[in-house]
Specification:
This protein is of the alpha/beta class and 454 residues long. The protein has helices at residues 2-41, 44-61, 101-117, 170-176, 185-191, 206-222, 229-245, 248-255, 257-260, 267-275, 288-298, 359-366, 380-391, 401-409, 412-449, and strands spanning 86-89, 139-141, 146-148, 162-163, 166-167, 198-200, 279-283, 309-312, 327-333, 337-341, 353-356, 373-377, 394-397. The chain has an eight-stranded mixed β-sheet with strand order 10-9-11-8-7-1-12-13, sandwiched between helices. Strands 3-2-6 form a three-stranded antiparallel β-sheet. The chain has a two-stranded antiparallel sheet with strand order 4-5.
Length: 454
C-alpha cells in the first residue's frame, strides 16, 4: 500500500512539473512576442529619428534658466563672515588689478634685456606678446623646452603640449615621454618651488615669461639655432626677474599709472570695511615705494591710515613657512627714500610700515585668532595654502580668469551643448538596453525551440 502511495505521489508530482513547465512555456512565448515587438520598433531607424527630433528640440527650444554672476563670490567651504574681524590682502593682482598692457610691457622689456645683455638674436624683438596664447598654471619642461598642461593626477594633457608656438601631435608627445604621460609626484611637488626638470608658472606675472619662452624656442627652431635648453630657460627667467628688481617696472607704472591702474577704485571698499570696524593688513613682496605709489592712486594719500599692519618685501612664500624671522620697521622720508630701523619690533602700530618677518612673529605680535582672519591673494601656493594649514586662516583667491570661464558657461552655446551631451548619453543608454533586450530575445527563442514540452 505504501509503495502504491509513493508511486501515485511521484506520478502526481511529475504531472505537476509537466503542467508547470507548459505554463512557463506559454509565458515564455508571450514574453518572446513582447520582446519581438520591442526589438522590431527599436531599430536603427527609430534611433535615428529620435536623435534628429531631440537635436532639433534642444537647439530650437532651449532657454537659459540659470545665470552665474561673472563678478560673484564663490564659497567652497562654510564661512560665517560675522566671525571675521580681520581682513588681509596681497598687493599685486589682488588690490592692484593691473590692465592687460602690463603683461605686454614686461614681455617687451625682458626681450630687450635678452638681446642687449645676453646677446640673443635681434630678430626676437619682432616677435610680439600674444595675449591669449597661455594661461596661468602651465608647466614648463626645461630639458625638452615644452610648455604644457598637467592635470590633478599628474598626467600631461594631450592637445596642450607646445614646443615654441607649435602644438605637438599626440604620437610625438607619447614618444617624447617614452609611452607614459604621467609625471612622478616628487617632480610635480618640486615644480611649485623651483624644480630642476619641470617648473609650474602660477602667478599672472609668469604669463610674459611663458610667452617669451615660447617665442625664443620658436625663433631658435625656425632659424636652426642650436641651444642648451637650460641656459635658455635661465636666461629668460633672469630677464623677467630683472624687469622687476631693477626698478624698471616701478618707473613704468609711476610714469603711466593711469594706464595700468584705475584711480580711486578701492576707496569705497576701504571706507566700507572701516565703517564695519574691521582690522586690515597688507602683506606683499613688493617694495614700499612701488606699493605707496599704487595705493595712493587707488585709495588716496592717506591709504596707510586704513591698515593696522603693513608688511612689504615679505619674501613669500618663505614668510608663511615655519620659523622665526624678525620684522624690521621701515623709516619713511617723505614717502620717497626708505631706510630700515635695526631696533627690535615689539608691537605693531597703525600706519607704520614693516618689512620681512614671518607668520609666527605676525601672530605673536598681533594676538590675532586664526579663525578671525580672512586673507585674499592671487597665488594659491604663495599666498593661500600655508597660512590655512599653519594658523587656520580663512583665505580667498582672486581669480580674474573665472570671468571668461563663467561668460562661456552663461552662453547659449554652452547650455545647449551640455543638454545635448546629456541627451546623447541617454540615447546611448537606451541603445545598450535595446541591445541587451535583443540578446535576451535570442536566448529565449533558443530556450523555447529546445523545450520538449512546447
Amino acid at each position: 500500500m505504501a509503495l502504491k502511495c509513493a508511486v501515485f505521489y511521484l506520478s502526481l508530482q511529475s504531472s505537476r512539473c509537466i503542467l508547470l513547465c507548459q505554463r512557463q512555456c506559454c509565458r515564455l512565448q508571450g514574453t518572446i512576442a513582447h520582446f519581438s515587438n520591442v526589438a522590431s520598433i527599436s531599430n536603427k531607424d527609430f534611433m535615428q529619428t529620435r536623435y534628429c527630433d531631440l537635436k532639433k528640440l534642444i537647439h530650437e527650444s532651449h532657454e537659459r534658466i540659470h545665470h552665474v554672476d561673472e563678478r560673484g563670490v564663490f564659497a567652497i567651504n562654510q564661512i560665517n563672515l560675522g566671525e571675521v574681524n580681520i581682513y588681509g590682502f596681497d598687493y599685486d593682482y589682488t588690490l592692484a588689478q593691473y590692465s592687460d598692457s602690463m603683461q605686454d610691457f614686461i614681455y617687451t622689456a625682458a626681450a630687450e634685456y635678452l638681446v642687449k645683455i645676453h646677446n640673443f638674436p635681434h630678430g626676437l624683438l619682432h616677435m610680439k606678446y600674444i595675449p591669449n596664447f597661455c594661461i596661468r598654471g602651465l608647466h614648463y619642461d626645461v630639458a625638452r623646452s615644452l610648455l604644457m598642461k598637467i592635470d590633478s593626477c599628474n598626467v600631461v594633457q594631450l592637445g596642450t603640449v607646445h614646443k615654441g608656438l607649435q602644438k605637438l601631435d599626440n604620437n610625438e608627445v607619447m614618444a617624447l615621454f617614452h609611452g607614459t604621460r604621467h609625471i612622478p609626484k616628487h617632480i610635480i611637488d618640486q615644480s611649485y618651488t623651483g624644480g630642476d626638470s619641470i617648473r609650474q608658472l602660477m602667478d599672472i606675472f609668469s604669463m610674459p615669461e611663458m610667452m617669451l619662452l615660447a617665442n625664443v624656442v620658436e625663433y631658435f627652431f625656425v632659424n636652426n639655432i642650436v641651444y642648451d635648453p637650460r641656459i635658455l630657460f635661465e636666461s629668460v627667467q633672469n630677464a623677467v626677474r630683472y624687469v622687476h628688481v631693477s626698478g624698471h617696472l616701478y618707473k613704468e607704472v609711476e610714469s603711466k599709472i593711469d594706464q595700468y591702474l584705475e584711480k580711486n577704485s578701492l576707496r569705497n571698499l576701504m571706507d566700507y570695511l572701516a565703517r564695519s570696524k574691521k582690522q586690515l593688513f597688507l602683506i606683499t613682496n613688493s617694495s614700499f615705494p612701488f606699493v605707496n605709489h599704487g595705493l595712493t592712486h587707488l585709495i588716496g594719500p592717506d591709504w596707510r591710515d586704513a591698515f593696522h599692519v603693513i608688511i612689504v618685501e615679505a619674501r613669500k612664500p618663505r614668510f608663511f613657512h615655519k620659523g622665526i624671522r624678525p620684522f624690521k620697521r621701515v623709516i619713511i622720508d617723505n614717502c620717497k627714500n626708505t631706510q630700515v630701523s635695526w631696533s627690535a619690533v615689539s608691537e605693531f602700530k597703525k600706519g607704520e610700515v614693516y618689512c620681512e618677518g614671518c607668520i609666527d612673529s605676525l601672530m605673536q605680535l598681533s594676538n590675532w585668532n586664526g579663525n578671525q582672519v580672512l586673507y585674499f591673494g592671487d597665488q594659491i601656493y604663495t599666498d593661500l595654502s600655508d597660512p590655512t594649514y599653519s594658523y587656520g586662516w580663512r583665505t580667498g583667491a582672486v581669480i580674474p580668469e573665472l570671468e571668461d570661464e563663467i561668460r562661456v558657461i552663461n552662453s547659449d552655446l554652452f547650455g545647449k551643448s551640455v543638454i545635448w551631451m546629456q541627451t546623447l548619453e541617454r540615447l546611448l543608454t537606451r541603445m545598450q538596453v535595446i541591445f541587451f533586450i535583443r540578446r535576451c530575445f535570442l536566448y529565449l527563442v533558443h530556450c523555447a525551440q529546445n523545450c520538449q514540452y512546447c
